[in-house]
Amino acid sequence: MNKKTGFTLVELLVTITVASIVLSMAVPNMRTTLQKNRMTTLHNQLLSALSFTRSTAITQGTWATLCHSNSDHTNCTAPESEWVNGWIIFPDKNNDGQVDSNETILSAFTKLPAGISMLSNKNRISYGSQGYAIGYAGKLTFCDSQNAITPQGMIISSNGRVRTANANDSLTSCSG
């Protein structure tokens, strides 16, 4: 006599129902976790870019600038523009905030991840040959478009140091 093994239709339906209930609870949390990881990654990439900009200014003995980029990543955009296209880094020999013919773009970050915006009270951060950011100190805030994640930010001091913002720092508001 051959014994057949397997699931009955009722067992299969119960298993699928339980799995769908568990998944429906996990998916929203997964979206928040992924977005938080994207924001943290962006924060770390910008921190690294600022360090590279400062290092470039010191090693080349000239101004170096990190600014929000135009859509084709060839120059800085107007002061009222946003950081949605990412940023570029270049030695800014005359500290005018624009890529001139004798200045080369060293690095470009192409685009912010979907659902994340970056707000700043500065349109560029420039470091002098001593590593100072005098006149360019400011705050950068990363916001989630759904406001489901606490904004993250960083503070750039006049002496060029960059630090992660804490709860006592007043960052730019992400709402409206």
Looking at this protein, list some descriptive labels.
single chain; four-stranded antiparallel β-sheet; 8 strands; 176 residues; alpha+beta; 21% strand
Word description of this protein:
By secondary structure, the protein is an alpha+beta fold. It has one helix and eight strands, in the order αββββββββ. The strands form two sheets. Strands 3-2-1-5 form a four-stranded antiparallel β-sheet, with helices on one face. The chain has a four-stranded antiparallel β-sheet with strand order 4-6-7-8, with helices on one face. The longest helix is centred in the N-terminal third of the chain and has 52 residues, at 9-60. The mean pLDDT is 87.
Summarize the structure.
The chain is an alpha+beta fold and 176 residues long. It has one helix spanning 9-60, and strands at residues 64-68, 87-91, 107-109, 116-120, 124-127, 138-144, 152-156, 162-164. Strands 3-2-1-5 form a four-stranded antiparallel β-sheet, covered by helices on one side.
Low-confidence runs of at least 5 consecutive residues: none
Rg computed from alpha carbons, rounded to a whole number of angstroms: 23 Å
Helix and strand pattern: HEEEEEEEE
* Physical arrangement of strands within the biggest beta sheet: 3-2-1-5
Indicate the proportion of strand residues.
15-25%
List the helices and strands and how they pair.
Blueprint lengths: L8 H52 L3 E5 L18 E5 L15 E3 L6 E5 L3 E4 L10 E7 L7 E5 L5 E3 L12
Antiparallel strand pairs: 1-2, 1-5, 2-3, 4-6, 6-7, 7-8
